[in-house]
Every structure is written in structure tokens, then in C-alpha cells.
């Protein structure tokens, strides 16, 4: 009897040690990840500012930062993994929609259609994303290090009120500007007849993507408003599981 009690205690201790090691590893990884992402978006901010000061125009700006942008925005896919394995307390769906829509904007719109890369709307969403991500990743970093300055917390949970809709306007205007080029070139589309017997029209797909902002964006925005109330005003909010 005594020995089984002891066994239980040993098992509990082992489990606790495992959990502690896991959470130390997760914290170390998240700290590294957030520092790297803050640095990446700071590099982008500096590159954009330098380009504009040197050239005096936004034309060619996208090309000059494309590689860095594609790397850091695509790398953000690991955030969906963080939620899925439970090392951050965030919804997989909310994070998935946010990250995938950004990756879609970068790879399948801006990067694929050269003619729209100098649109003002591209600069608009790039500036908004950059400010957002520098704030967001530095917030997570300082929080993990237990030294969170209030102004960063304030910025994280207030700037989005304006930046989110402005970013969405930039993204929608960019997709809209892409439509004529997509229609003319027939890119990423499959017309019948073909050996797979499948038809796909990227032009209409883009229209559906634009329309999907109507139901999806308010959900992300209200999610952030709830987070704001929780983080800045200490309200307890019960969210539904995914
Ligand atoms: C394939 C085709 C797709 C087409 C789809 C078309 C649909 C389009 C609709 C979508 C529109 C999106 C437009 C968008 O791209 C425009 C912009 O982004 S404009 C710029 C302004 N944007 C923002 O401000 C974005 C704000 N949104 C978010 O931040 C996100 O919702 C999200 C990234 C998911 C974060 O939300 P979350 O719920 O995680 O909030 P918190 O930051 O409060 O975090 C909650 C807790 O988790 C901890 N956490 C999260 N991540 C980390 C991390 N990396 N490291 C450490 N800890 C982390 C955080 O600390 C909180 O912990 P605790 O609760 O313990 O305090």
C-alpha cells in the first residue's frame, strides 16, 4: 500500500517535471520566435523608409522588400501550429484565417501580378501590417520576459481599432486592382476541355475572396475587441472552443 502511494507520488513528480520541461521549451521557442519576427518586421520598416527617402516614390518599393516580406509573412504559418499544439491560448481558426489571408495577399495577389505592385493600396496594407506586427510581436516578447511596458500593451490593444479596417481597405483595393489583369491573362485558371475535366476561374475566385471579407472580417475585429476588453479592462470573457 505504502509502496503504491509512493509510486503514485513518483509518477506525479515525473509528470510535473515533464510538464515543466515542456513549458520551459515552449517559452524558449516562443521568445526566440517573437524576437526574430519583431526583428524581421523592423528590417522591413527600415527598408521601406530608406527606399522612400532615397527614391522619393513608392514605385518599386514592393520589389525591393518582396523577398523579406515573403519570408517573414510565410513563416507566420508556424503560429497556426502554436495554437494547434496548445502552446499559445489562441483559436486555430482565428489565427488560421488571419495568417492564410495574409499569405494569399502576398503570394497569390501581389507577388503574382507585377502590374499591381506599384499601387498605393499595396503600400497602404504593407505599412499597416508592418506597424501591427512590430507592435504585436514586441508585445508577446516583452510579455514572455515579464517586462511589458504599458505603452506596448496599450498599442497592441488600441491601434488595431484603426489599423484593421485600414489594412482591409488596402487589401480589398489591391485585389480589385488585380481583377482586370487576372481576367485578361487567365492566370491560375483552368478552362474546359482539359484532361482533368475540371474548370476553375481565378477571376471569380477573387470575387468570392473579396465577398468573404464581409462575414469574416467582423468576426476577427470583434474577437480583437473582446481581447481588448479582457486585457485592458480585465473583463472575464468566456469564448466558445474551436
Ligand atoms: C486562402 C484564401 C483565404 C482568403 C480569406 C479571406 C478572408 C479575409 C478576411 C480576413 C481579413 C484579415 C485582414 C488582415 O490581414 C488585415 C490586417 O491584419 S490589417 C492590420 C491590423 N491587424 C491586426 O491588428 C491584427 C490583429 N489580429 C490579431 O492579432 C489576430 O487576431 C491574432 C493574430 C489571431 C491574435 O489574436 P489572439 O487571440 O491571439 O490575441 P492575443 O494577442 O491577445 O493572444 C492571446 C493569448 O495568446 C498568447 N500568444 C499569442 N501568440 C503568441 C506568441 N506568438 N507568443 C507568445 N504568446 C502568444 C498571448 O500572449 C495571449 O496570452 P494570454 O491569454 O495568456 O495573455
From TrEMBL:
Question: Would you tell me the Gene Ontology cellular component terms?
Answer: endoplasmic reticulum membrane
Task: Specify where it is mainly localized.
Answer: endoplasmic reticulum
Keywords tagged on the record: Endoplasmic reticulum, Fatty acid biosynthesis, Fatty acid metabolism, Lipid biosynthesis, Lipid metabolism, Lyase, Membrane, Transmembrane, Transmembrane helix
Span-the-membrane segments of this chain are: 26-48, 93-110, 122-139, 159-182, 202-222
What reaction does this enzyme carry out catalytically?
a very-long-chain (3R)-3-hydroxyacyl-CoA = a very-long-chain (2E)-enoyl-CoA + H2O; (3R)-hydroxyhexadecanoyl-CoA = (2E)-hexadecenoyl-CoA + H2O
Q: Which domain of life is it from?
A: Eukaryota
A Gene Ontology BP annotation from the UniProt entry: fatty acid elongation
Annotated membrane topology? Multi-pass membrane protein
Q: Where in the cell is it found?
A: Endoplasmic reticulum membrane; Membrane
* Annotated metabolic or biological route of this protein: Lipid metabolism; fatty acid biosynthesis
Output the Gene Ontology terms for molecular function: very-long-chain (3R)-3-hydroxyacyl-CoA dehydratase activity
Enzyme category, top tier: lyase
E.C. no? 4.2.1.134
Which family is it part of?
Belongs to the very long-chain fatty acids dehydratase HACD family.
Function noted in UniProt: Catalyzes the third of the four reactions of the long-chain fatty acids elongation cycle. This endoplasmic reticulum-bound enzymatic process, allows the addition of two carbons to the chain of long- and very long-chain fatty acids/VLCFAs per cycle. This enzyme catalyzes the dehydration of the 3-hydroxyacyl-CoA intermediate into trans-2,3-enoyl-CoA, within each cycle of fatty acid elongation. Thereby, it participates to the production of VLCFAs of different chain lengths that are involved in multiple biological processes as precursors of membrane lipids and lipid mediators.
PANTHER family registered for this protein in UniProt: VERY-LONG-CHAIN (3R)-3-HYDROXYACYL-COA DEHYDRATASE, VERY-LONG-CHAIN (3R)-3-HYDROXYACYL-COA DEHYDRATASE 1
Q: What is this protein called?
A: Very-long-chain (3R)-3-hydroxyacyl-CoA dehydratase
